[in-house]
Structure formats: C-alpha cells, structure tokens
Amino acid sequence: MTTGGNIERAPVLEMRNISKTFGTTKALTKVSLTVYPGEVHALMGENGAGKSTLMKVLSGAYTADPGGAVLVNGKPIVAGDPIKAKANGISVIYQELSLAPNLTVAQNMFLGAEPSRYGVVDKAEARSRVEPILKQLGITFGPSQLVAALSLGERQMVEIARALTTNAKIIVMDEPTTSLTSRETERLFGVIADLKARGIAIIYISHRMEEIYALADRVSVLRDSAYVGTLDRADLSAEKLVAMMVGRDLSSFYKKEHRSPPQAAKTVLSVKDMGDGRRVHGCSFDAKAGEVLGIAGLVGSGRTELARLIFGADSKTSGTVTLDGRTIAINGPRDAMDAGIAYLTEDRKGLGLFLDMTINENINIGVIGKDAARGGILNFAAAKERATRAIKSLSIRTLSASINVGALSGGNQQKALIARLLETKPRVIIFDEPTRGVDVGAKSEIYRIIDELAQSGIAIVVISSDLPEIIGIADRVLVMREGLIAGEVNASPDHPISQEAIMAFSTGSASKVA
C-alpha cells in the first residue's frame, strides 16, 4: 500500500485532511488524496463511503470544514467556488450528464462562457474552437449537432470535450460507463488513454472491478467516510480491494450459513417443459426448500426469458408450473404472486421500482390493499410499520421511509425492491441479476439476505452473469445454452462448482451433469 511516495514527479492535485459535516452527520473525516499528471487514479468504496462528497468539495459544489486544503500544482485554490475550480483546471463529469439536449454541441460546450464580440455570441469563434477538440477526441458529429439526437456515449464525449475547452488538468469521471454499450465503453477507454498521454489526470469512480484493472494506475479506497489507503497497479487484487472496501477478506464475502438441502428434501417448485417456441425450448427443473439454485449461461442463452415465462410476464407455448405439489395456472404476474412466486427483475429502474414514489409506497404497493381498515380506508399505519420493519431488517440506508426511492443508491434501491417482494410472503423467489449495478458492500449485504431467505426454507433461484457470484452462493447450478438447459453442475466436498464446468456446458463441450 502506498500514498504515492514512489512517484517522483510533482502532483497536480493534493487534497489534504478534507472533512465535511452535514448537521450531525460526518460525510468525510480528514480524507487526503494525491493525484499525478497523466495518471488514471481510481476512487473506490461502497455507496455512502464519501466518494461523491469528496469530488463535490474538489469541484467547489461543497465547502469543506475548516482545517483542510485543496492544492492544484502546489497552490491552494479557493474553497467552495465552482468557477474558481474550473479556472484551476478541475472538471467533473457526473453520472447523470448535465447537458442541455435542446442546444447544439457547441452551445453546450460553452454554456455560461460563450465567446462574444460586442456583447453578441460569436458563433464562428465558438465553432473554430470546438472543431479541433472534437477532432482530437475522434468525434464524427459536428458542433451544430443537437445534443438530443446523440446517443448516451456521444453525449459523454461532449462532456469530455466541454472539459477540454476549459483546459482541464484534472477530469473526474463518476461511473462513466453505467449507461454505455460495450462499443461505447471501448471508445471511452481509448479517449481516456489519449487524455492520459497528454498529461491530463483522470479521477475515475467505478464499482466495476474489470474497469479498474483495465484503466487504473493507482486506486484509493474510502470506507465509512474515511481514507483507507492506496494501491499501486502492481498490487491490485480483488482480495485486497474487497478487504479495504468492506473491512473483511474475500474468503467471507460469499459465506453461506444455510446447509445445502439433501436429495430427499421437499420440492417446492417444479417446472416442466417450459417454452415459448422462440427463445426457450422445453426447460424442466426442480427447486427444493432451502436451496439456492443458480442459473448460468452466456448472454442470449435464455435465462431471463425462462424466468419471465415462469412468472407469467411473457406468454408460454408449453409448460407447467407446480408449487408445493399443486399445478398452478399462471396467466400473468398477479397469478404467480398470489400463488407464492416472486420475481426480482434485472431492470429495477425500468421494470421494478417507481422511482418518483417513496420507499414506503414502493415497499407496500403490492399488499397495501389487503389490510384495509374499517370502512375500506387504506391502513396507512400498517403500511408505515411494514416499511419501517423492512428498512431495519434489510439494512436499507435512508433517513426516512418518506424519501423517494429514486434518491437511494443502487444497492439500497435493490433492497427496497426485495422488501416489496418479501411482503407477498413468497415460497419461491427468482432473483435475476440481483447485484447488477450495486457496489461491493451492497453485494455482500444482498448475499446475506439471500442466504437468510434460504435458511428460512424459501426456494431461491438466482440468475447471474457473474460466475464467481453463482459459484459462491449456489448449492447447484443449471447452465443454459441456446434456450435449453444444457446441463447441471452439482457441488460436493471433493468437487466444488467450478467456472470451467459451467463454461463447458455454456459452450456445448460437456456431458449433461458435472
């Protein structure tokens, strides 16, 4: 672990003993960060660790508590002044892009600082200054292009181009690939490499380990609002990063308290010959009480499609679902929920949560009508009690159940959605990519929740593209390929579930059971 003492060149940025207090809440406690020209310095930590607060202090959006200092090229800068921060070469590209879609690329790049002549915006000057920057970044659209017509990846390039119009020395990128395609992500990585070669420092915030390994020269970690340490690229490993972020080693990350059910354990869910005639073909499997059954497979193998057929979200052409020995007719999600099957969608924002409604409303929306008070009036006291209980039991980090769920971090949003499912008292829960888009600390908490649900006797089905995740939490794994269940991987004391066995089925190079 290092604080950068092995780098001899002078730092472009030093943040010394930065603290920030909101009321009685300590958001940052004496955090220090040193960044050098031409390096990608990753900043990691679970949600709530203080990363965004630290960057808002850097950008001037927040004023730090007395006692700290921010230096650029060795000189202190004025605290709490965004204009001065920009003038000193600091530019922040937030996760939620701040472009005006009804304006052109050039207008966005100079918004608030338009070149003018005699009090009138000089469009020719703006265009002449924009075009070389667009060319440097390999951008093919012109300065007159409306931002509304651009893809998310292209809009992000405009944000970077805007930073370069201010002669940025330090560019902060906050979760920049969240909404990008793989092609756009590859393009962004190329731009980052070019910026780095030009001596610009990049502070890169991400919870995606593979991006950190691909880009970072050094990684600094925050935990519980404090600085933990910095790793050089040569010292990076999942074990070290997880231990720094969550305060324990990777060996306990997927720890299972529940016991794998015996072969003779009660079958809770039985799916027979399920298919839709297009993407899923004749899939059959059983899930037992207290079992975590994993479903793996390559993208496009039919995993999510199978789950949606079971839940009644899509129409099937064949297949039956039996729950606790009774065949049930599922013609839609309400039938599945009433029968005791819950489904956590992979798209919590688009298909799961109501982001402009409160945590209370989101948790209760599926059951509030079932406990109506006298006279048919909704029992809001019971709803509040349910939400309060769920917030406590699932460790949802929020000041109040009346806060909009859209204001929560990804991990806390996911836990709020799980809370809603649990209020339906399910016998089976299908988790589709349960830790997608959440930080490492929230992942650990979600694994704990899944483990406790299995201990309670619920049958758990987990669909995941993350093989270490599947291997870590599942008792056995079904592997799908081209809409079929290609095989099953069972764990035993002598032969634990392996990535090799799963990939053999995924690629069609294995027998039916491993």
Task: Write a structural description.
Helix 4 packs across helix 5 (152-165) and helix 14 runs parallel beside helix 15 (440-455). The protein starts with 12 loop residues before the first strand and ends in an 8-residue tail after the last helix. A hairpin with a 2-residue loop joins strand 4 (69-72) and strand 5. It is of the alpha/beta class and 514 residues long. The chain contains 17 helices and 22 strands. It has helices at residues 51-59, 82-87, 105-109, 123-136, 152-165, 182-197, 209-215, 238-246, 303-311, 333-339, 348-352, 359-364, 380-393, 410-422, 440-455, 467-473, 499-506, and strands at 13-22, 25-35, 40-44, 69-72, 75-76, 90-93, 116-117, 120-121, 170-174, 201-205, 218-223, 226-232, 267-275, 283-288, 292-297, 318-323, 326-328, 341-344, 428-432, 459-463, 476-481, 484-490. Helices cover 32% and strands 23% of the residues. The longest helix is centred in the middle third of the chain and has 16 residues, at 182-197. It folds into 2 domains: 13-249, Rossmann fold (3-Layer(aba) Sandwich); 267-506, P-loop containing nucleotide triphosphate hydrolases (Rossmann fold, 3-Layer(aba) Sandwich). It is globular and about 80 Å long. Mean pLDDT is 87; it is low at 1-7. The strands form 5 sheets. Strands 6-9-10-3-11-12 form a 6-stranded mixed sheet, with helices on both faces. The chain has a 6-stranded mixed sheet with strand order 18-19-20-15-21-22, sandwiched between helices. A 4-stranded antiparallel sheet has the order 2-1-4-5, with helices on one face.
